[in-house]
């Protein structure tokens, strides 16, 4: 049997079956199958860096106070002044809230132990109609070799609170509290790693209320380190490129990302990372800044971009077929399918003859369905990424319950990062962009197939205004291709839509192995253009590695 493999995204990547996404709301779809989907908000506002997690627009950093020693000294003796304790790079949290304590109280409790750590001035917290200074304080006992020798301190008034890893627990906090804790923890972490001068090894002294370190010998100053990283939404038409790392929760995909290197612009870093991680070239002129997000684990700044990858040209024979169909139909009052279709008496299989419109050629709109074949192939490097592949906008929208129309998912596990992450916002914003006006055909699923081997038909759905879309329908319960056609016709008739048959064949679908093979023909309707069918199936089964076609068999 001659089989053509259609645009496999990658080979050899088997998908895991379960996902456990900590901290995200999960819903279950598709009764009886193990599908977990992380839902996305119904409406996603335009990207706004300040609304992303770990940044807080309402917080006043009051940077001018960092060198105002008199003001700082007054603030530290003010009973209203607050402090965020940080121990072993962990933040103090109780019942999903940040624990913020009076500074004077914490100081007195620590003074009793004969040791006073240096507070880091963070800024001013709004408290009613006035502002309170807030500091971060490293309460790790630096006299001990490691935190393993030490148990976390307990503060009066904060019994039951826990020092937690913010990277893990941050998404469970409010955005503003997570931002404040991350800011304080980041500065403490930086100071911990900047104890000695890089030039002469002399001890560093804290200056500027904790925002700078100065060498006690040569006097050179250093400031908190920030690592710029690019994160990019790479698209090709209606497809988006997403990848996954091996250590992520099963089935989770996200935007590609990576650190900028010395001597690079952000735009250059976008192009290099996409090429390195997925083997895909983005169009340099398409790279656009979108938004940024502090990612203080320990010191990244995620700089979000959108970029486009160049599509591969259509196979020449398809271009020729489509353009000849278009020119033939020019004189036919906009009925672009007239040249390639005709009414035919067909044998229903049970001896009765029914009339059905059978069209065999391609019309220009059909090439849209073939976009899946034009995508540049993703080849993940296997070092940073375990998998990288293209996802169609409609599939993502359906999988995230933003619109109806997703076919049965057959146990596929898929998830995106939580709403706290810029990646989710980049993807969500792109999903919200709709290029086309809605029409009645939106309510009709493009693909309805089952697991197993069955007869299928390729159909074209049209409305009176020339809007159309192709449908793939098949069922193990259909004895004849015409049964599938009739059932679909009953579905679309009440909507005033027309249905044409473009041919039939068989589909062998092994959901467990994520394999689909399209082959064979229909006595009643002739042979469908299986490449078209496969392109449509590729769109709706993005996590399948192998969708093949063959013109042979029955
Ligand atoms: Zn020095």
TrEMBL record:
Cross-referenced Pfam families: NUDIX, NUDIX-like, Ocnus, Zn_ribbon_NUD
Listed cofactors: Mg(2+)
Lineage start: Eukaryota, Viridiplantae, Streptophyta, Klebsormidiophyceae, Klebsormidiales
Protein name as it appears in the record: NAD(+) diphosphatase
Gene3D superfamilies the UniProt entry points to: 3.90.79.20, Janus/Ocnus, Nucleoside Triphosphate Pyrophosphohydrolase
Superkingdom of the organism of origin: Eukaryota
E.C. number: 3.6.1.22
SUPFAM superfamilies named among the record's database cross-references: Nudix, PHP14-like
